[in-house]
What we know:
The protein is α+β, with helices and mostly antiparallel strands and about 240 residues long. The protein has 2 domains: about 5-170, no CATH class; about 180-230, no CATH class. It contains 8 helices and 6 strands; from the N terminus they run H-E-E-H-H-E-H-E-E-E-H-H-H-H. The strands form 2 sheets. A 4-stranded antiparallel beta sheet has the order 1-2-6-3, with helices on both faces. A two-stranded antiparallel ribbon has the order 4-5. The radius of gyration is 18 Å and the shape is globular.
Amino acid sequence: MSRTSEADALRAVTRCLEARGFDLHAQGFGEALGDLAEPFGIEPSSPLLVTGNTRALWPAFVTARQRGEVGPPDPLDAYTEAAHEAALRAAGATARPLWAHRGTPVLPIQRVAERLGLCHVGPAGLAVHPVYGPWFGLRALLVFPPGLHGGAPLPTAPAPTAAPAPSAPLPGAGPCAGCAAPCRAAFDHARRATERLDKQGIAATWRLWVAARDACPVGREHRYSAAQLAHHYGAAEDG
């Protein structure tokens, strides 16, 4: 496959993902991950694409669920995997997906995204984007074969907003620089009120966990809808 066709394939992957609501991504190579790469067998020269979504995911996901394309017990996880696999097939691209929602060892997706420049991990452990603040989700890391582009930068599809996701590590403390960190107190309050840090425990106190996101001053205009929040925090009937 020529470099041009490879670039076209990768652009097609990101376009397909954006059409399904996964509108955030950042690229890089395995070497950027440092010590995070070895447990997953990621070679320094492997091209990487970390993927995520803003609230743009919700309408696409709801439509897929209404059509019966995904269902319980974990419809969003099923939708995520199907969308990424379909995007790779449509683009004729080969990649090994590492999922944020499952796998052994667990993928430290926040740290991966931080090292690839998509976000910064803030003082309360929230991933914070310079535009969307904490109002986004991280879904997968696509690991492409080493040498795909001979070390050349991977192509990046047009950003869905006027403020694109960065493709280089954020400097310093990123969007959290100079912030009084009100998220930390809200996070500590949620943690003290939650008896068990599992799906059921967090669902019981989910509004307190949402308050930790609400405390962040960045990206408030991109806040999830009530239905999307309830689903992500396990308060919706199908979890």
